[in-house]
Write a structure and sequence with these properties.
Elements: E1 3-6, H1 15-27, E2 32-35, H2 40-53, E3 58-61, H3 65-71, E4 76-85, H4 86-92, E5 99-102, H5 110-114, E6 117-120, H6 128-139, E7 152-154, E8 163-165, H7 172-181, H8 186-206, H9 210-219, H10 232-242, H11 247-254, H12 263-268, H13 281-292, H14 295-308, H15 312-325
Parallel strand pairs: 1-2, 1-5, 2-3, 4-5, 4-6
Antiparallel strand pairs: 7-8
Helix pairs in contact: 1-2, 1-6, 7-9, 8-9, 8-13, 9-11, 9-13, 10-11, 13-15, 14-15
Bound molecules: S-adenosylmethionine.
Length: 326
């Protein structure tokens, strides 16, 4: 278990710095930060972050921190500007179960002897937060840890903020219940299961939010319980919104058809005038999962039918999605 020992915390001066030690430790995969004495204000704010964003992290008190270090079942690594170079360390050591010690203004002299390794992240003075972040990132080989169990998650996007509130994303069981309650036809249920499987395969390769993807795949055709026509994605989006579920889920459902629909195409179908083009990763994965759930032959057949119906641009977008997502 990766842990951190924070020494020298002064409640009057170091609240912010020590909070950042904890947040950095948590974000980069540590499960605990030990303090000789826990600062309850700091503990409360870090606990709030874990409750909201998930993961398995806690602050622990260990008055006899020397004993913790002596008894630690793993490598004890003290980060200090005076230590051995980090590059050489990772090139020659296989780190096991690390307890990483970071100080504040000064650490007690004994730490240098108690630690298995004294390691420097460059030999210039900087900060415990920076040193810890770089060390953990090297230890993780640059891969960001995953978090589960939170109330919300921040999803990567190049433009603006995307936050998903998990309290408004139904679990798979709730989705099944809705499918059954609304009397979805057997063949649509079979297709839905195939789309779920295909979407999860795409998730393995491309990532995306698993809860949003699962609910999106399961509900993408919920509008078919109202109509089999071109307006079924719109009806589905309406149902999702009526359930009080997240708008991002409603958008997945609304934008899943073919390669999505432009405003002009929507108007030509008599649908409300707006774009129904998949934009987010999750929207694209469910859309493509739907197009390719029946394998290559069905995809080609779908393309042909789209072309024949006169939706040349839509067919092109389906192909473009295939080129993008494989
Ligand atoms: N003289 C201190 C030292 O031993 O690195 C610098 C004190 S600094 C304000 C607080 C903490 O930041 C240190 O206890 C150490 O854990 C960390 N730190 C600062 N510079 C570092 C560096 N170049 N390499 C590794 N850790 C560093």
């Amino acid at each position: 278990m990766t842990s951190v020992l924070r020494l020298g915390h002064r409640p009057d001066r170091d609240k912010r710095m020590s909070t950042h030690v904890c947040l950095t430790a948590r974000a980069l995969g540590a499960e605990a930060v030990y303090f000789p004495v826990v600062d309850s204000v700091l503990e409360k704010s870090v606990k709030g972050v874990t409750e909201r964003f998930g993961g398995n992290f806690g602050i622990r008190e260990r008055r006899d921190w020397q004993e913790l270090v002596r008894e630690w079942d793993g490598d004890v690594i003290h980060l200090t500007m005076y230590g051995d170079d980090i590059d050489g360390f990772f090139a020659s050591q296989n780190v096991r179960n690390p307890l990483i010690i970071v100080g504040s203004e000064k650490v007690p002299r004994g730490v240098y002897e108690l630690a298995d390794f004294n390691i420097s992240v460059g030999n210039q003075p900087h900060s415990e937060v920076a040193a810890l972040a770089i060390f953990l990132d090297r230890f993780n080989r640059g891969r960001a840890p995953k978090f589960s169990g939170g109330k919300m998650a921040v999803l990567p996007t190049g433009n603006g903020k995307r936050v998903v509130n998990y309290q408004r994303i139904p679990g798979a069981d709730e989705c099944y219940r809705l499918i059954l309650e609304r009397g979805m036809e057997q063949d649509v249920i079979v297709h839905t299961m195939a789309v779920l499987q295909r979407t999860l395969e795409l998730h393995e390769v491309h990532g995306g939010d698993i809860r949003l993807l699962t609910a999106g795949a399961l509900l993408h055709d919920i509008g078919r319980t109202v109509t089999q026509g071109a307006e079924h994605p719109l009806e589905g989006g309406k149902i999702v919104r009526e359930m009080g579920w997240d708008n991002q889920l409603a958008n997945i459902v609304e934008r899943h058809m073919g390669g999505g629909m432009t405003r002009e195409e929507a108007e030509s179908q008599g649908l409300p005038s707006k774009d129904y083009l998949p934009e987010t990763l999750e929207e694209k994965l469910v859309c493509h999962g739907d197009n390719t759930a029946g394998g290559d032959e069905r995809f080609e057949d779908l393309l042909l039918r789209t072309e024949r119906a006169g939706f040349h641009d839509s067919a092109q977008r389906m192909r473009a999605l295939k080129d993008e997502l494989g």
